[in-house]
From TrEMBL:
This is Glucokinase. SUPFAM superfamilies: Actin-like ATPase domain. Its EC number is 2.7.1.2. PANTHER family: N-ACETYLMANNOSAMINE KINASE, ROK (REPRESSOR, ORF, KINASE) FAMILY. The keyword Acetylation does not apply. Transmembrane segments: none annotated. It comes from the Bacteria. It comes from Microcella alkalica.
Length: 311
């Protein structure tokens, strides 16, 4: 018998579920995806989660598979350790009992652990990714949003309400952009893919997507390049501020927009390195995530397989 965790990753555009073993390997054929989306009703979201989970669980019927629990990574905010979620970009779900929904789909009463998706990313980096030799780590996503999670001295930092690690809502000096959270100057409002594209358009660039921005910058368009540097500079400033507070060894960055330029990670590292005169801040290393697109699912499974880090 081999122990497997059901892993669920809930995001603003999709939900995925899969079975993941104790080495962080996704069982071939067990990964299933359904759409979510900002305009979905509460019932439609529940149906998407149910379908993805049930499809994944169909792979668990082989006799050598022992299902030992379910780990769920959710877009934030979440509600502490209750399993309830209120994802910013899924308006139909407010304080929704996602953990209970998934738990009821399991074939037996098994442990269900739900944490913010950023925490799962950080766990995956420490477990099987770019941070396996480090103890104080932040995992980050720069994509349609900006998220993260923090592990200090090898232990996950969950926080009072479950939402520690929301680096996308750290304010960055010099910026005043309005954020969806209600504040101004948040990293996500400055540096996310869509916000970076929007800024480039205010400067006269005429494309509409991150892919077009990447192509323009690659062809030497100065405005597109400036937009990318603006994003990376803001990410670096936020990382430096976070490291001043919690003294990070390493930050691993993934997410689609982190691939907008070949040197995006280098730009972020440079912004960290020149942030201040504090060596403990500027020596924080920034690396590309070593996780594939399976990273969020592997991280959700880590909530079960690496439970000692989460307790
Ligand atoms: Zn914000």
């Amino acid at each position: 018998m081999t122990d497997y965790a059901l892993a669920v990753d809930l995001g603003g555009t999709k939900v995925e579920a899969a079975l993941v073993d104790v080495t962080g390997r996704v069982l071939p054929g067990s990964r299933h995806r359904r759409t979510t989306g900002a305009t979905s009703t509460a019932e439609a979201l529940a149906a998407s989660v149910t379908e993805a989970v049930e499809s994944a669980l169909e792979s668990a019927t082989e006799p050598e598979i022992e299902l030992i629990g379910a780990g769920i990574g959710s877009a934030g905010p979440i509600a502490g350790r209750t399993g309830n979620v209120s994802p910013l970009n899924l308006a139909a779900w407010r304080d929704y009992p996602l953990g209970e929904l998934v738990g009821d789909l399991l074939p037996a009463a098994l442990p269900v652990t739900l944490r913010m998706d950023g925490i799962c990313i950080a766990l995956a980096e420490v477990w099987v990714g770019a941070a396996q030799t480090e103890s104080s780590v932040m995992g980050m996503i720069v994509s349609t949003g900006v998220g993260g999670g923090v592990i200090l001295d090898g232990r996950v930092i969950t926080g009072r309400s479950g939402n520690a690690g929301h680096i996308g809502h750290l304010q960055v000096a010099g910026f005043d952009d309005v954020c969806a959270c209600g504040a101004r100057g948040c990293l996500e409002a400055v540096a996310s893919g869509p916000r970076t594209v929007a800024w480039a358009r205010t400067q006269g660039w005429t494309g509409t997507t991150g892919e077009e921005l990447a192509a323009s910058a690659g062809q030497g368009d100065a405005t597109a390049r400036a937009a990318i540097e603006r994003s990376a500079g803001a990410v670096g400033a936020a990382i430096a501020s976070a490291s001043a507070l919690v003294d990070l060894d390493l930050v691993a960055i993934g997410g689609g927009f982190s691939h907008v330029a070949d040197d995006y990670i280098d730009l972020v590292q440079a912004a960290v390195a020149h942030h201040s005169d504090f060596a403990f801040v500027t020596s924080t290393r920034v690396v590309a995530s070593a996780l594939s697109g399976e990273g969020p699912l592997i991280g959700a499974a880590a909530l079960i397989h690496q439970a000692e880090r989460v307790a």
